[in-house]
Amino acid sequence: MENISLIFFISIIIPLCVACLVFDKRTRTNIIFLMIGIVACFFCGEFDGFLNSLLNESLKEFSVNVTPVVEEIIKAYPLLIYAFVFAPGRQKLMESSVIVGVGFAIFENIFILSQNAGSISIGIALIRGFGSGMMHSISTLAIGYGISFIVMRRKLFVTGSLAMLCVAIAYHSIYNELVQSPYSMVGFILPILTFIPFYFFLKRNEIKGHIKYKKGKDLIKQ
Amino acid sequence: MYYYANMDRFCFFADIFNRKDFLMGRTAVLSVSTPETIFSVVYCIGMIAAFVIGAAELRKKKAPLYLRLMIYAIGCAALEAICTTVAIVCSSANDPSRTARLFSSIAYYIFLASANWGQIDGLVDERTPKTKKARLIALIFPAVVAVAAPFILIPLFSSKKIAFAIVLMIELIPLAIGGYFSFKHLLLPMDAVGIKKMAKPINISVIISMVLGLLYMASYIYIFKGKPLFSDIVRAAIMINTFFMMNSTVRGHRVWKTLV
Predict the structure, then answer these.
(1) How confident is the model at residue B94 (pLDDT cuts 50, 70, 90)?
(2) Cβ separation of A183 and B89 shorter than 8 Å?
């Protein structure tokens, strides 16, 4: 049998590539980030398999200690390039980081659920959707928040990005540890519990960011 | 199979919730939890409480970035506590080789270093010959870290915990930088505006946290040997110091508002 993850990858990425030709610039950017998330997940899957064969750790040890580091760094990489090369606004950067996380989660869920096709149900799909899906979005959003310091205060960009990357790795690791323990339900609820305060925090900052950005634009025009 | 073999350890929580079917529908058998597990849970709750109390201050409008960075640092310390507690509760042993806790500690030290270097340093250090003495004396802190590092890292490397020791080595860098700036700000002569006076208790708590961080790193050697008592004592001290840090940061912010 062919590599199943490669088959899924091709069948998802080609329609998205075609769709990119049709949409306007803003939607196209979002779809490109969705594809980047899917590519990152595909790459992580292959790279994790390679690392696992090298390290000879148990699956649990590997998923708690190594996988979060690899996945978060790979997810952060396109965002860093985007921030440096295209210098987007803070809001756009945050949106893009969420979309990368969503793309990653979509492909991961498809792959994992298809691997357990005999034992899955709607309930498991819901759990994975809310649990793993939101976890990836939140961790990538945290990295995006750190990188967004490039827009606000360049002096804090390196430290902010590094610190938030470390936070994302730790958060991802906690999630992986919990879902593989008898407290798996706590693990699945954790992203939802984290998302609520994080959402309000961002909502508050987003409004402030917009005002500052607009004021800055006006000043430049004058 | 591994998890079910250690099921009795988790039954402590099943009893707390008074539900025998709390763990995946299985009948839980009550077992006496170890004091370390209880201590870890208390430690975790304490650190989260410190963060929540500090984060409440951020709700107010125009919270300065220094305050935000300090509270983020306390949040990372709370994350480290959660990592440790989750590892203890879920893996039935205080396994320090979980690198996640080290990453949250790295974030903690980066935020502390960033707050002291990026925010305060430009305001309090005029880079004149008058402050040169303080700048040089403060180098004692990174020197102490450099001296302590081999004593911490060599036993870990020799016990084949290579990946863990490498991440620990990375952790020492922001620790040394943050400690240097806090120590320097403590040594600088008092200014007319009062920033240094306001930041003094914060800097003291930061230096204490750095020293405790070093001791915590040293305690990993004892944990690997199966002697967690030293680590627990250090963690208790870290928890108390975190409350002190949070309190002095929030107070400092209020004083700062009156100054400005």
Answers:
(1) low
(2) yes
